[in-house]
Amino acid sequence: MDCLHNTEGFYCHRCQPGFRGNALYGTPYDCQRIPLYSEGSSPGTTPAPAAAPAPTVRPHCYCHGHSDTCDESGRCLDCLHQTEGKHCSRCQAGYIGDARKGTAADCQLAHPDCSCHGHADFCDVFGRCLNCRHNTMGDQCEKCVLGYYGDATRSTPSDCRRCPCPLTMPSNQFSDTCTLDIDGLPTCTRCHPGYLGRDCGTCANGYWGSPRVEGQRCVRQVEQDFHQSGYLTGLRHVSDIALT
């Protein structure tokens, strides 16, 4: 293998004698010639001691340009530039970016104007909140997610609550959305077919049931009549057998 840019080794992973730098950066300028004379001196004068070459990096030491040394297992030591991880491949908490790009500016401090109403800790470089919690969403975690209602800007973990349509358990939620109305109470906005009312707790015409009772729902009247008819037919059949 013919290594370029003043590098050598099976992986072209180190600088040739007389050159110094970090050949793992992957640029043509990784290895620079070591000057033979100190600044201000010239040939014919006493040469300055040559600078010591950079430490040799193990072939398996891959740190995305954020560290020069690894342990025997290949784990990077002393990650720089606000990076961390086995290969210095991620940004530290409080910093955002892509540490795998291999530059000193990969990880930047989270946006200083990060206003997330207490529902997220970090923002991107544009000030948009990352990983909103407490069932919130939006650039500033200012809205409740689908199926929840409330005022997410109050900045408490309980700002957004599950829509009671009419109950909060999944078996008795008959609207996917609700809003906080002007009276401070939730109003369900998309009742499923067969349900009516502010909380979708009433069966529509042609339906029968008790949607406000846990596990119950509204069913079509013809379906109910069919079940009742089958039940009565079964009773008559049992009675006929008993009389014979």
UniProtKB/TrEMBL annotation:
Keywords recorded for this protein, A-Z: Basement membrane, Disulfide bond, Extracellular matrix, Glycoprotein, Laminin EGF-like domain, Repeat, Secreted, Signal
Disulfide bonds: C3-C12, C79-C88, C132-C141
Keyword Disulfide bond part of the UniProt annotation: yes
GO biological process: one example: animal organ morphogenesis
Pfam family, one: EGF_laminin
Main location per the UniProt record: secreted
InterPro entries linked to this entry: Laminin/Netrin_ECM (IPR050440), LE_dom (IPR002049), LMN_ATRN_NET-like_EGF (IPR056863)
Matching SUPFAM superfamilies: EGF/Laminin
CDD domains recorded: EGF_Lam
PANTHER family (UniProt xref): BASEMENT MEMBRANE-SPECIFIC HEPARAN SULFATE PROTEOGLYCAN CORE PROTEIN (PTHR10574:SF444), NETRIN/LAMININ-RELATED (PTHR10574)
Name this protein carries in UniProt: HSPG2 protein
Protein species of origin: Branchiostoma lanceolatum
Gene designation: HSPG2
